[in-house]
Structures are given as C-alpha cells and as structure tokens.
Amino acid sequence: MEKKLTKSDFFWAFIRSNFLQGSWNMERMQALGYAFGMVPILKRLYTGEELKQAMKRHLEFYNTQPFVTAPIIGITAALEEKKANGADIPDGVINGIKVGMMGPLAGVGDPIFWGTLRPITAALGASFAISGSILGPLVFFVLFNAIRLWVRWYGIKYGYAKGTDIVQDVAGNKLQKLTEGASILGLFVMGALVNKWTSVNIPVVVSTITNAKGEVVVTTVQSILDQLMPGLVPLLMTFACMALLKRKVNAIWIIFGLFAVGIICFALGIMNVK
Amino acid sequence: MELSGIQIILIFIVSAIAGMGSVLDELQTHRPLIACTVTGLILGDMTTGIIIGGTLEMIALGWMNIGAAMAPDAALASVISTILVIAGHQDVAAGIAIAMPLAAAGQVLTILCRTLTVVFQHWADGYAEKGELRGIDICHLGALLIQALRVAVPSTLVAMYIGTGAVQAMLDAIPPVITGGLQVAGGFIVVVGYAMVINMMGAKYLMPFFFLGFVVAAFTTFNLVALGVIGLVCAIVYIQLNPKYAQVAAAPAAASSSDADDDLDDELD
Q1: pTM here?
Q2: Axis-axis angle for helices A69-84, A7-17 (nearest 10)
Q3: Pair A139, B31: CB distance under 8 Å
Q4: Is residue A132 very low, low, confident or very high in pLDDT (cuts 50, 70, 90)?
Q5: How far apart are CA A203 and CA B57, in angstroms?
Q6: Which of A64, A40, A59, A42 is closest to A51 using CA atoms?
Q7: Which of A101, B57, B59, B148 has the highest count of CB atoms within 10 angstroms of its CB?
Q8: What is the Cα–Cα distance from B215 to B222, expressed in whole angstroms?
Q9: Quick one: how far is CA B7 from the chain centroid?
C-alpha cells in the first residue's frame, strides 16, 4: 500500500516546528529540534530498521534562520515520502539538500526577519509603548507573529508541493529581490531611527548676545550642530559602534562604554537631558 | 514592596516562558515589549511595565542570534529590571542601567546552557539507535526546560528578596550623578542596536538609503508608519528599475523583439 502523508501530519509538523530551537546546542545546533519537527512525518512513513535510519538522518548537524526551516521541512517530507514508497534516494541526498539549503536560506531569512521585520515592528511598538500605551506590545506581537506563522505554514506546504524544484527558486531572482528590497527598507528605517529615536544635548554655551530687539540669544554647541544637521552626533556614534562591532567587540561592552560616556559628560556638564 | 505568594508564582511562570522564548525566538515572549509588560501586569503596574519595555526594546533592537553567535539576553534583563523598577521603587533610567549587566549575565548563562544541552543531543542519538520517537520529544523538551529555568530561577529569587531592606538600600545608594548620567546615556545608547542591524545587512552599496532615511527624518515630522511607507516605495522602485533583474526577463523576450521593434517604429512614425 502506498504511504501518504496526511493533513494532520503536516499540521503537527507545523506546530512542532515552532519549537525548532528549543534544544539549540553548541555541538549540532538545531539538529535535535529539526528531528523533533519531523517526528509526525517519520512516524507515518517508517517502522523498525527504516525508522532508526531516518531518525539518525535527521539528527545530523543543522542550523539556519528558524522561520525559513519551513520549506526545508516541506522538501524533506516530500523526499521521505518518496523514499518510504520505494524510490531510490540515498541518505546522503536528503542531508545534502538540507545542508545545501540552510546556508542560502539563512542568507535570505536573516536580513528579512532579524534585520527588517523585527526591528521595524518592534520600533513601531516601542514608539507607542514609550508613552505607556498597551497598543505598543500588541502591535508588535500581532504583526510579527502573523507574518511568522504565515511563513511557517505556507513554507511547509510550498516546500512539499515544489520538492527539489525549490533549489532553483533559492538560486533564482525572486528571493534575491526580496532580500535586497527588505535590506533597503531596513536601512532606510534605521537611518530614520538614528535621527528620530535618539537624543543628545550639548548645552555648552558658545556665545550670549543681546540682539537689536533686546532679546538675549544664547548659542550652544547643540544649536550650532542642529543648524548644520539635526542628529549629527548620534550618526557619528552609530558609525563608531559599527566600526567597533566589526572588530568583534561585544555589544554589551560598547553599551557599558556609552554609559560611561554619559556619566562622565553629565558630571562635567558637557551633556544633559533636553 | 513585598510580593505575595501568587505574584511570585506568576513571576516564575512568566519568566520561564520568557526564558523559553529567548532560545526559541519564535513568539518573541523574551522581547522587552512583551516580557516587561506582562511582568508589570503581575506587579500591578502595567503602564510602567510597558514604558520600561518600550525603552529597553529600542536598546535591544539589534540583539539577535545569527548563526552560532549569541545575543545579549533580553529575557533576564526585562523581567528582573521590571521587578526592580516597580517593586523596588526605582526610576526607569536606573532600571535600564541595571538591565545591561543582567543582559550580559544572561548571555553567559545561555551559552552555558547551550553547552550543557549537548548531553541531550547525545541521549537523542541513543533513542534513535533504539527507534524510539518518544525519546526525541523527551530530550528536546528537557533541553527547553533547562533554558526556561535559566531565567525563571534568578527572576524568582529577585522577586522573593525584593521586599527585604537590603535590596532596597542597595538600589537607593546609587548617587544622583550616576542616575543623571544614565539618563543622558539613555538618549544615545540605542545606536548600538541600530549599528548591529546595519552591520548584519552587510550591504554597503545600499547605504545611500540609510542616509536618505536619516535626512528625511531630520527635516520632516513624519511618524514611523509614514517613514516605513517611503522606505518601502524606495525598495520597490529600486527593484523595478535595477537592470540586474531586467536582464533575465529580457532574454526570453528577445525572440519576439522584432515585433516590438516594429511597433516602436510605427509609434515613432
């Protein structure tokens, strides 16, 4: 009798795939999590010696951006189904496809989800939350998870339907366009955030003049900088951070460093809160 | 403020969920926006929780796990700093400052846990040898439980001892020059997160869009939604006009190009 994966197998693989990184470890990273996601599929297809082989196959090293695992689960499900029905697919091929896809897909998933979607939805949420509005956390939670779950569910279906053809999609234009577009959006919003969601005030007085109308005009370092380009100091700080991060300095140390800068400048009266 | 037994139990549960979220990175329960809000709700002051969450979220914007690199831990930082601010009667700036060493400690702890869970990976190999699928579930969820406890245990300890005078006295001993300086630093500490996101994109040739966003934000009063729409339009137009993508479409169209040329000639005539 031909073995066929059912709708409920895919549903449970989808639910379980939400726990992909639960056992992330320094040796094989997401390997056990991937096997955890494949359990409903392997259970349907194999018994005995074949099951043992299949379990071992999916406990091999694996690591990618978690959400883009969905199409890989879809493809391996399709391949396992063929294999269980007698197709001659060596173990190495299934693993080769997993390993071959995880790199390129992480290259797409990281900038789209961690570089664009999360920072933008989180910044949007934070902009409401700063004033204490419950809308902030809600907007972030709902927007991010709606898109994430959609990718996870349709990713599995898409991967299963397309099978190994998807390898061409990964190499092709479509994903490159999406990645590049997301990077543009992400960088644009980062630029806006550097300007808008930072505040630096340097109240050092440069000159105090009484003008023709008899008003006292105080010129501070900050007012000169603001005439030149608002947000110039945070921009320079961003570049400094980028350079330090490129030299593999831990982000937490940079944060402590900036705290020290804040405390010293405040103590000397070079900076204050506007 | 002394916490009730029920509050301590709820803190344990919520910090366990935040700890799981920190390794899973799916529902985002470890992000300050979520973890601080829920912790605030338990402590009876959700509004303050939301404000801490929003402030911390901007700092943590670029904290992400890429490949095998671990981010500073937002879960531990969010839960404990919210407890210290609300139950320890501190202001938000002080809470944010305390959150940073906590994030560093959480990062060390998660690396430790992720090394420890290698053992579970090997147990799973044993179950595969026997063909027991249930074993995969036990090992995987067992490792997840360790990550939950990693955040839940320290958070619950803080919740239990926050009512005692010692913690209060320690927090109150922070001199005003430090709190003032931390508030000043709070204005620009967020650039670290932005820098992390920009570096991760690794697309130097797209940096003009970063400067465009910077200048548009500098000279307009547009909110984040409007800026997002402008960014999206830039992205779409760039993709549409980029010859790199046009060439591939042009190749199959070449066969029928003679027709197109004729049409064009007609038009010109």
Answers
A1: 0.90
A2: 140
A3: no
A4: very high
A5: 28
A6: A42
A7: B57
A8: 12
A9: 25
